[in-house]
Structure formats: C-alpha cells, structure tokens
Amino acid sequence: MNHEGFQLVSKYSNQAQNRAPEKTWEGGVFSGSFDGADAYSLFVGYHFTKHLSSELIATQTLSNFVESNLVGMQIIHTSLPNKKWRPMMILGAGKIYISPKSTLVLPENRDNDFMKVGIGIKTHFVRGFYFRAEYNAYRQLTQREENVTNDEWKLGFSTLF
C-alpha cells in the first residue's frame, strides 16, 4: 500500500486550513470607553490567514474636557479561528490628536504617537456578522519626561466582505 499519496494529500489539506477565509476583508464599528470618555471607532481589515489579520482603525473620543482623534494600524492574532469563541491578541501603533475644550495658558503640542497592546474575543453573531469585545492598553509617547497611559474597553460588530 502506498502511503506517500496520503501524506501528500494530508500536507496540502493542512496548508488549506491555514489560508485566509474566502472573504478576506472585514469592516466594523465599535463603541466603548477610552479612559472614561465615550469612544466610537470604525475599522477595516485584511485577513492574511485565519490566524493573522491587519486593521486600520479610526477612533473619536468625547468628554466634557477634551476631544481626541486616534488613527492607527493593528495586527491581530486569532489563536482559535475554528472555534465559536475566538480569542485575539492585538498589537498596534498610531497617532492621537488631542483637542482640549478649554483655553490653556501655555499650549503645548498635544499630538502624540501611541503604541498599544490588547486582548479580545470574537464570535459569530448571525449570518455574516460577528460580535467583538476588546480591551486595549495604550502608551502615548509624549515630549515630556513621562509617557501617558490609557485604557480602552469597547464592544462592536463586524462583517466579512
């Protein structure tokens, strides 16, 4: 009996399981909290494989004292892509533009770069839609002697296209 043919089929079927889904683009919306301020996000992403994707994300935060706009990119690793509940690990970077709502005596540059790390979970909601929950820890790289840290919690929906 020739087992070489079985190994060849097995090898290619394992490679097929790691490919990206048929619809490789994903887009969605989030709502949540960025250090106590209301946060709203839009994102679009590309799935390289079932495990690895990249996203461009834009967020606006609104509070009584400050308004911020964040633009960034994140890489997401999905560790169990074939399960109902899919845990995610997130690494990202970008730019934050901060606009205080009051006049400052000594205005300073409030536009900072940021890095972030996060975790999340994604699950299939209804046909073609996913529910996502994420937590992200931000580190703003300021010109001052100390950097600023922020926490973000958000919930949202996405779809593949």
Q: Quick one: how many beta strands? A: 8
Helix content: under 10%
Q: Label the overall shape.
A: elongated
Largest sheet entry = 8 strands, antiparallel, barrel
Alpha-beta classification? mainly beta
Assess the beta-strand content as a share of residues.
over 45%
Order of helices and strands: HEEEEEEEE
Biggest sheet: strand arrangement: 1-2-3-4-5-6-7-8
Mean pLDDT: 87
As a whole number of angstroms, the C-alpha radius of gyration is 20 Å
Distance between the termini: 44 Å
Number of helices: 1
**Which stretches of 5+ consecutive residues score pLDDT under 50?**
8-14
Summarize this, please?
With about 160 residues, this protein is mainly beta.
Output the keywords.
single chain; 161 residues; mainly beta; 64% strand
Description:
This protein has 161 residues and is mostly beta strands. Helix content is 9%, strand content 64%. It has one helix spanning 4-17, and strands at residues 25-34, 37-47, 52-62, 66-78, 85-100, 111-126, 129-141, 148-160. The protein has an eight-stranded antiparallel beta barrel with strand order 1-2-3-4-5-6-7-8. Mean pLDDT is 87; it is low at 8-14.
Topology, element by element:
Elements: H1 4-17, E1 25-34, E2 37-47, E3 52-62, E4 66-78, E5 85-100, E6 111-126, E7 129-141, E8 148-160
